[in-house]
């Protein structure tokens, strides 16, 4: 009852956004203007908090170079391109995102990280990467994306399909807190309004379970807490899985 009451209070505070959503105005505005603006600034903050963890995560990326000597990488939900700095020099990157409105920030990131070869940008959802041939990439990267896809399982299935045997899936995602914690209590309260405001971002997904149930031959996963005060997205998982 307390969760429902506090959800209603939060919805009242966000009533203008709910009205814009009802009129069909909020979603296109969010996708084209608000979310790209917000994500670029949030990514800068998140990057400072997770830089060491990402450096450690991508340290073994060269180990998955194909026998031909090339490292072909596909990133699901590239957004502003905050991961480019961690990629191996000379690797060939295919960028994908369901939202094509990140051009300016993405271009800035590409210009800063010219050690990477950018092959193409595809407007595609994580659940449907049909433009990418099966078994054609050595690594797939997905950070802060599985919270907002329509289907986590379908996205992981596509990642497995495009990976060559022995390739790796790298991830860093915020997840549901422990169910007995106050963090989870507040995640439940924020959930409906947060999802509306932030382009479908879900606060209570237990993504580690989806990874455990996917058909990876090896899963390396760690639960961490990222210091993001006054936000409900502090619990994270980080790691990589091998096809």
UniProtKB/TrEMBL annotation:
Q: Which GO terms describe its biological process?
A: methylation
Keyword Methyltransferase found: yes
Q: In what residue span(s) does the Methyltransferase type domain sit? A: 74-171
Q: What CDD domains would the database entry show?
A: AdoMet_MTases
**UniProt keyword terms in alphabetical order:** Methyltransferase, Transferase
Q: Which domain of life is it from?
A: Eukaryota
What is a GO molecular function of this protein?
S-adenosylmethionine-dependent methyltransferase activity
The reply to whether Methyltransferase figures as a keyword in the UniProt entry is: yes
InterPro entries given for it?
Methyltransf_11, SAM-dependent_MTases_sf, Thiol_S-MT
Which PANTHER family does its entry note? METHYLTRANSFERASE LIKE 7A, METHYLTRANSFERASE LIKE 7B
What is the official name of this protein in its record?
Methyltransferase-like 7A
């Amino acid at each position: 009852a307390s969760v429902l009451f506090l959800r209603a209070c939060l919805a009242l505070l966000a009533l203008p956004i709910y009205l814009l959503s009802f009129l069909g105005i909020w979603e296109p505005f969010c996708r084209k203007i608000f979310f790209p603006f917000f994500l670029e600034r949030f990514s800068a903050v998140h990057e400072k908090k997770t830089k060491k963890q990402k450096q450690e995560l991508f340290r073994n990326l060269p180990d998955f170079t194909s026998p031909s000597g090339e490292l072909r990488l596909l990133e699901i939900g590239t957004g502003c391109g905050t991961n480019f700095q961690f990629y191996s020099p000379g690797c060939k990157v295919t960028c994908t995102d369901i939202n094509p409105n990140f051009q300016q920030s993405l271009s800035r990131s590409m210009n800063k990280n010219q050690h990477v070869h950018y092959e193409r940008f595809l407007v595609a959802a994580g659940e449907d990467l049909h433009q990418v041939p099966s078994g054609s990439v050595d690594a797939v990267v997905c950070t802060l994306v599985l919270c907002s896809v329509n289907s986590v399982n379908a996205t992981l299935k596509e990642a497995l399909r495009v990976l060559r045997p022995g390739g790796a899936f790298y991830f860093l995602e915020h997840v549901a807190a422990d169910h007995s914690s106050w963090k989870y209590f507040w995640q439940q309260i924020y959930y409906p309004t947060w999802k509306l405001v932030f382009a479908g971002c879900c606060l209570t997904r237990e993504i580690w379970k989806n990874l455990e149930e996917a058909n990876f031959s090896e899963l390396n996963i760690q639960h961490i807490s990222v210091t993001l005060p006054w936000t409900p997205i502090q619990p994270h998982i980080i790691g990589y899985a091998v096809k």
